[in-house]
Structures are given as C-alpha cells and as structure tokens.
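haha ok so turns out i had the wrong file open the whole time. this is the CORRECT one, sorry everyone. sequence first:
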Amino acid sequence: MKRTALAIGVMLALENGAAEAQHAPPNSVPKTYGTNFQTLHVGGSAFRSIYGFETFFDAYFDGYLYNWDPSFETDVVTAPVTLPPGAEIHALCAYFYDFHSDADNTVGLRAGRLIPGGGQRGVVAIGPTISSSWDYGYGVACADFAPPYTYTEAAADDGVALTYYFLAQLPASNAIGGVKIIWRQQVSPAPASPTFSDVPAGHPFFQFVEALSASGITGGCAPGRFCPEAPLTRGQMAVFLAKALGLHWPY
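then structure:
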C-alpha cells in the first residue's frame, strides 16, 4: 500500500457509522469521521425556558416540549448544539406542534460570543429561521443553508470563542419536538506552501497529505519529505490509524 493511498483513505474512507447516523436517536452525539452527509437530532427534552415559564416535556404522550404558561404568553426556549469543528451545516428541520392558526412556532441557530470582561458581546443569527406555517397539529418544516455554514469554535474576525444553541419561540399551548441538523465534515483546505518537498501543491494528494500533517497524524518519512510512493508497513499503518482515530483504551 502506498502512503498516499492511506492518506486519502484515512481522510475519506472512515465512514462506517454515517449510515446509522441517518437514524440517530434524539440528542445523539455526532460522528467525528467521514465526509458523507450525517444527521444530528436535538430532541425536545434538551430545550429549556429562558424565562422560567411553565414548560412541560411530555415523555409519555408525544415526546414534545410544551409551553403551558397560564397567562398565554410566548415562551423562548434554548438547547445547546455541538458539532465537530469544520463541519458544514447544510439544512435544518424542526418538528412542531401548533395549536394556533395565527401564532407560529419559530426556531433558528445562534452563535454567542464568549467575550471576556470589557469585550464586545453579541449573538449572531446563523442560517434560516424555521416556522410552523400550518394552521393546526403536528408537522415538520425544513430549510437549506445557502451557502452551507462552517461550524467553527471561534469567530473569523477576531478569534473570539463561540457557543452554539437553538433559540425557539413557542406561543402558549404550542410545542417543539426537536430539531434535526443535516451536516457533513470536510477535509481542511490545503495551505499555500507545501510541508513536504515531494508532495508539491500540484500533487493530486496534496490536500489530504497536508491535512494529515496539520492534524499531527504524520510527520513524514524524513525531514521535509513524505515519500508518497513508498510502500507502507503494517506498523506504519498502525501509527496512522491510531493517531487519526485518537485511539485510547485503558489497560
């Protein structure tokens, strides 16, 4: 096996798990490998009222979170969202119960800026806002991200840490069952200058070899060289895979 073949294989072929992720349970943990489309569900049980309203998670009847506020006011509920850094978000779907013909539920993705004291705080709306546009009953509404949004742990302009969450508005007697995120991982873009002299920018595996190097999976075969055409031993393959998967087991 050539070293370049393993490089692209590690970055693209470790997808066993993407299929079952399409049917993942609510509040599931996202996969951290593969570039196929995956689904992350954030269920109604994860949402909490920011006003302390009388929300009720109906675990026995339908698994939805209801706004039972006796004053018939709209509640605002949130739920945390976590994806691997670099993940592309392509679409959202929201599951709602709508009791009113003129008061829709809404939900959208938000990013909060975790600014130290004295800095510029703020919340950024990301992508579309989804609403229950039907008159009555259960339903699902979906919207695409155009262009896809790249999930990152820090703001691009100043590097400030970000925290992500869903922000939903529920009129009285309405409910949310959860939100589904359609996403996929992507291989890091190649740098302007190559790390290895024998894998230049025009090499067909340049992007993938650079991704392995940047992530600490490989340091090459010699200083400044990757040896892309050299055979790969089983021992070297063990190093590649153990580092790529972050294998850590108690002994």
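The two ends are 30 Å apart (CA to CA).
again sry for the mixup
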